[in-house]
Amino acid sequence: MNSFSNRLTRLFGIRYPIIQAGMIWASGWRLASAVSNAGGLGIIGAGSMYPDVFRYHIQQCKAATDKPFAVNLPLLYPDIEKHVQIIIEEGVKIVFTSAGNPKTWTALLKQHGITVVHVVSSSKFARKAEEAGCDAVVAEGFEAGGHNGREETTTLVLIPAVVQAVKIPVIAAGGIGTGKQMLAAMVLGAEGVQMGSRFVACVEASSHPAFKEKVIALQEGDTQLSLKQLTPVRLIKNAFYQKVQEAEMRGATKEELAELLGRARAKKGMFEGDMEEGELEIGQVGALFDDILPAATIIENTWKECCLGLEQISDTFTAK
Question: Fewer CB within a 10 Å sphere, N or C end of the chain?
């Protein structure tokens, strides 16, 4: 496949502007290294890792690839100071931050020569990330899986708004899992895409096989944004989701919802494979997948489809 060059590929030192999201319980070193070796940017998801486990995954990833990779650092993580220290000690070059104020850690990370990208759900937060010194932003729309913005702005609206609001590169996320969707995002002004759900249904993902099978069996409407009183999260409809819905319908308090969610609910579903009582986070785009593929194949298919789509559009607009 032909390589590609723009501000984003040069910023990360990667071949294709395709980034794998740092997803809890799905994105360990095997997935991150496989994506990076295929020419994208793999990301280790730190949100589900204790500090010693986090260090292990970074070390394993360094051994498995000589290509750039990143870590995703949720800023609300309770042991974040330890995670930041590990990132610095292990020489990680790229960090994607999320779920918090980018001002808190960006300056320190950049002092150590680390490229910092922050995940945002609005133009307002994109500007704050730029002001904090971030090198790029991920603009993630309402369609996304996992934890979501409260604004519920769709990707089609969010991307051009954020592109207009900031001067740093914008990475599109939320509802993107195919090459044609990637092309659409880049036409809107994004310089690359971040895909999560597509890589959940991936051979190298550490998500449970039952979860992968659940994802590729999804139909439109099988997910719903829930738990808005806590932190909005898009869930697959199952027994746990129904309990959440019932609690919200009767006006449950934040405390009641937090008790219902409990601890390790996401691990129970996505990592351990309980498809009914587990918390199953995935994006709407899961309804478009029907196979579990190696990471390299996903990268190849996405880029080929993006380039072919561009040719088809060019032919359409130049046809007499």
Answer: C
CB distance 21 to 199 below 8 Å: yes
| Residues 235 and 224 sit within 8 Å (Cβ to Cβ) | yes
Burial state string for 192-209 with b = 16 or more CB within 10 A and e = fewer than 16? bbbbbbbbbbbebbbbbe
Residue 225 confidence (pLDDT): 87
Position 2 scores a pLDDT of 66
State the DSSP H helix or E strand holding residue 124, giving kind and residue range, or none if neither: helix 123-131
- Spatial distance between the Cα atoms of 177 and 158, rounded to a whole number of angstroms: 17
Beta bridge mates, 69: 42
Residue of 242, 269, 244, 277 lying closest to 258 (CA atoms): 244
Q: Chain centroid to CA 1: how far?
A: 24
DSSP state of 30: H
Tell me which architecture the domain covering 7-207+290-318 has in CATH: Alpha-Beta Barrel (3.20)
Report the relative pairing of strands 233-236 and 146-147 from DSSP bridges. antiparallel
Instruction: Please state, in angstroms and rounded to a whole number, the distance separating the CA atoms of residues 108 and 105.
Output: 6
Encode pLDDT of 126-149 as tens digits: 999 999 999 999 999 989 887 767
Residues of the chain with pLDDT under 70: 1-3, 148, 319-320
The one-letter amino acid code at 283 reads: G
Q: Where in the chain is the domain with CATH 3.20.20.70?
A: 7-207+290-318
- Positive or negative: CA dihedral 263, 265, 267, 268: positive
| Cβ neighbours for 111, distance < 8 A, ≥ 6 positions apart | none
Tokens 């290509």 correspond to 67
Do residues 17 and 48 lie in contact, with contact meaning Cβ atoms separated by under 8 Å?
A: no
Please choose, from the candidates 176, 201, 200, 195, the residue with its C-alpha nearest in 3D space to the C-alpha of residue 25: 200
CA distance 146 to 210: 18
Q: Is the pTM of this model over 0.90?
A: yes
- Is 146:24 a contact under the CB 8 Å cutoff? yes
